Structures are given as structure tokens and as C-alpha cells.
Amino acid sequence: MTASPQIHTDVHAVRFGVVVFPGSNCDADSYDAVSTFTGAEARYLWHKDEELDGLDCVILPGGFSYGDYLRCGAIARFSPIMTAVRRFAEDGGLVIGICNGFQILLEAGLLPGAMHRNEGLKFVCQLVNLRVENAATPFTHRYREGQVIQVPIAHMEGNYFIDEAGLSELEANQQIVVRYANESGEITGEANPNGSQGNIAGICNRKGNVFGLMPHPERVCDPLVGGVGGRGVFESVINTVSGL
Amino acid sequence: MKAKVYITPKQGILDPQGVAIERALPALGFEGVGGVRVGKYIELELPDGEGAGEEMDKMCHKLLANPIIEDYRFELVPD
Asked: What pTM value is reported for the model?
């Protein structure tokens, strides 16, 4: 989205919660992305919290929750707050998992599939092009279908795997939200940074209220850091919640 | 009793670590090695009693392994 952000008068009605796990390191970026650049309200939630009262959207941020011990997200999934997040999601609340947050959602079974190590075995830290495959979700409707946005990735385990049956189901239900693409929006092998099946970078659940993605939209919300390609995610949530 | 748990990537799933090791071995003069799979080995102490195997299976399924991408097997060793 290249347009400048729209500031809505009732924007402060939208409340985001950012979960802080031991080892989260993108919590402050996520907090800033929603509170500074979109003007919504944000508050931190500790992994031991058990209530999500009054929130419209919960963000599970990137990082290395619990040191990534055993598998990425495997331990975080049992945090007290995850029981509340599961309930929140079941009640239709909006949940975004970014990078490690996505891994946690997969481990928790709130999204299908699993992550394993990048095909190239290296930690990848770079700007990638994403093609918006589904612009009808609460997280992406500020984009156009087929739009290419630039968002950074930074991960070691972002190689998305799902079995054939699961992949068909994702495709049939338009659950693939963003894919790694080249500048022109073509889905190519070269544009795939980690070996993910079908160049999948982000998916949503069947109901469409839980969204996980490996790229970091919260890192591209300020022109000062080189782009605002990620702002549309948070603006979409704000518009959804405000009924705009 | 003690349990020994072996976790490996599911057959048919690419194991990039295994592939890297497989490619490195010939460079050291070890020719003809194939099928390298890198997994995890976990040891733990369990209370003695019946149903230990069943408990262990649940533990593996729920936490120790991710059944979507990993296979597991375990041995129970009485003290």
C-alpha cells in the first residue's frame, strides 16, 4: 500500500494486545506499529496472563520464545495465555502471528501445517516480495488481490510444510494469504527464500480470523526504515473492527 | 524407569540438515553414504508402573515430537 495511512476519527476504539513471551524480541516493534503508525491503542500482555478482556486483536510477535527449545513455538504453545488466545480465536477474535508467532500458532494447532528448517540451512534476513493472494481477509483487505508488497523476513525455520491433502484444502478455501514472489508478482523457485511449499509465506484459518505469516509487516510501517508495505495489515484490522 | 526417545524427520519430508551432512561426507573420503536423517534423542525418567508406554506415547505425540513432520519411537528401560 503506497497511499498514506487513513486516520479515522474512531480509530482509538480499536485495541490491540501484544503478547510478550520470554524471548520475544519483536514485541516493541509490533506495539509501535499499531500504536504509533495507525493510532490504535496497544497494550502488552504477559505470557502468564489469562484474560484478553476488551481486546479486538491479539498479536503474537516474532522472537525466540522459550529459546526455541525443542521446536520453535513448541513450549510457548503451553503458556497460560495461549488458552485465552485459543478461546479468543474460537469466539471470532482476530489473531496475528508473526514469524515466531506464526510458529506458535502452528504448534498450537490454530493453523494447519508445520515449520521446519530453511532449505538452504541458513538464517535468512532480507527484504522479500509478497503477492497478496487473498485480499478479502480482515488482515489484508486494504491491499488488492495480486498486489506485490515488500516486507522483510528474518528466520531460520520458515520452511512451511503441509501434506498434499492439507495443501488442497488451503487452496480450496482461499487460506493462502501471501506467497513469496518476484517483483512482478510471479511465484517462482528463485523467489522462494526458504523452501516453503507453494511459496507460502502466510495463511489464515478456515474462519479467516487467525492469520500467521513469516514476514514482518510491523517492520515496514515507517517510511524512515525504508517502507510502509506492512501497514496495510494493521490498517485492515482497524478497518475491520471499526466496521469501515 | 528410563525412557529413550528417538525423533526423526518423517520419511518423504526433506531433511536439509541430513542432505548437508550427506554432501559433506564424500569430501572427507566417506563415499557411498546415503539416507542421512538428522533427528533428536531425548532421555527421561518415568515413574514405574503399568501404562508407562501409553503415557510415553501421549507425551511424544503432544510435545516431544511434532507428528506433522516427525516420526518418533521410544524404548522403556527398567532401572
From this structure: 0.91
